[in-house]
Amino acid sequence: MAGPPKVSKKTEQTFGLKNKNKSKTVQTYVKSVSNTVNQVHDKKVKQEMAEKEKKRLEKLAQKKREQELKDLFKTIDGKKDEKAEEASTEEGQEGEEVTFDSLEQEMADEAELSIEEIVEKERAKIMDGTPVTYESFTKWKQFKVEQQKKEEERKRKLQMALYEKSGQGLSGRELFKMNEALFVDDEEADETVYEIPEDAIDEDLFLEGDDEEEISEEIDEEYDPSSWKEKQTPKEQLLNYTQSRKYPDAKYEKLPKQNPQENGERISVVIEKPIKKEFMLSKLFPSRKLAEQNASLVALRFLQKYEEKQKEKAATASSSNE
């Protein structure tokens, strides 16, 4: 007796993925892959377009630089302009054909030339320049000398105005710096040079304060509120110094600007005793308060050095008397 007929089984070729393409997960994955491919394609297209645009801009910039270089040495040739105008107005006359290719070729030829060659080439076109002769050079040199004299005179007047405003007279050295012509020797003066030995000079004949010129008014330190370590400011110290010795208080005055472009404050300070001295700061400071503090510091250091010199002089005199 024959057994039951065998049922043929058809092999499934989907490997268990039948109808899986309709699932939400598969559709999401397919969509993400498509977007990635499209983005990569768009990125490449954008990159290619950006490179083309960059090359185009670089080419335009190069043409602009070359054109500016040509315009820098451009000269007007009346005859060429006249011929060009006649050619453009006459009918039936063949004109010169100008294309972008020819312009680019001309710019390329210009770019191959060195700067020196371009300068010499354009200089050769200039025919109306003033030739350099002995007369023209002498005239130019005289003009420059007069300009320099005017500038020196302007500076001298400005310095004189500063001294007049301060109300203090000029010393011999300052006057000599202002105008050396005031110290020309008399034509009938004796030209004999006399030498005096140093031991023949009696130092006691000099009054106190004659050695003030030996004391430098320049100091290496500068007042900075953030780094100042002393309890009192320089202005307070100077005030205490003068009051303890019953001297008049120091006077401060704002100095005028030497030129309109200056941005800051410049101060002068005057002390009356033990010697009358004015200290004019050449440096600009952002505020008047800071300028006064630095001017006070210069005056205070000068007075301290002056007092030390007087003590040394007195000690030397007393030891010599003994």
From TrEMBL:
Superkingdom to which the source organism belongs: Eukaryota
Membrane-spanning ranges: none
Region feature Disordered, mapped onto this chain: 1-21, 71-106, 200-237
Domain ZC3H15/TMA46 family C-terminal per the UniProt entry, residue ranges: 112-193
Cellular compartments per GO CC: cytosol
Biased composition annotated in UniProt, kind: Acidic residues: 87-106, 200-224
SUPFAM superfamilies named among the record's database cross-references: dsRNA-binding domain-like
Gene Ontology annotations of biological process type: cytoplasmic translation
Keywords assigned by UniProt, alphabetized: Coiled coil, Metal-binding, Zinc, Zinc-finger
Any Pfam family matching the protein: DFRP_C
Coiled-coil features, chain-numbered ranges: 40-70
InterPro entries: ZC3H15/TMA46_C
Protein name (Swiss-Prot/TrEMBL): Predicted protein
Molecular function, one GO term: zinc ion binding
Biased composition (Basic and acidic residues): 71-86
Tagged with keyword Coiled coil: yes
PANTHER family according to UniProt: ZINC FINGER CCCH DOMAIN-CONTAINING PROTEIN 15 (PTHR12681:SF0), ZINC FINGER-CONTAINING PROTEIN P48ZNF (PTHR12681)
